[in-house]
Amino acid sequence: MSNVSYGSAHLMHAMFDTLRYVLWVVVSGFAVVGAAFYGGAGVAAVWQKAGPPARRRNDEVSREAADGIAEIEAFLATQLPRARDDDPPPAPRRKLPPASGEAA
After folding, report:
1. Could you say which DSSP state residue 93 is in?
2. Given this model, what pLDDT does residue 20 score?
3. Is 80 helix (H, G, I), strand (E, B) or coil?
4. Stated pTM of the model
5. Which residues of the chain have pLDDT under 50?
6. Which in 11, 55, 85, 99 has the greatest CB count within 10 A?
7. Whether 71 contacts 77, CB under 8 Å
8. CA atoms within 13 A on the CB side of 67
9. Positive or negative CA dihedral for 72, 74, 77, 78?
10. In the UniProt record, does the keyword Transmembrane occur (predicted)?
């Protein structure tokens, strides 16, 4: 004879069924979240490439900004890097102690 009554055995099976259901939901949730996290970026990239290109502004401000940037780049291309008289001299390098195993 068993020490477990019919009621407690039924309750134990119900608890195991509930635990199995909860674990199934948790594992399924992890799978869905993982698929959305890792697959979402790939789907978004494909979707973005398949869609229409981004609209560009063709107004006066953007043309003026592009002209100004071109002028600045042309000016900087003609300039040579040089030291100015009021620039401070470079900081002297300090001598590091010898590493272990090296002669001093």
Report:
1. P
2. 96
3. coil
4. 0.36
5. 1
6. 11
7. no
8. 7
9. negative
10. yes
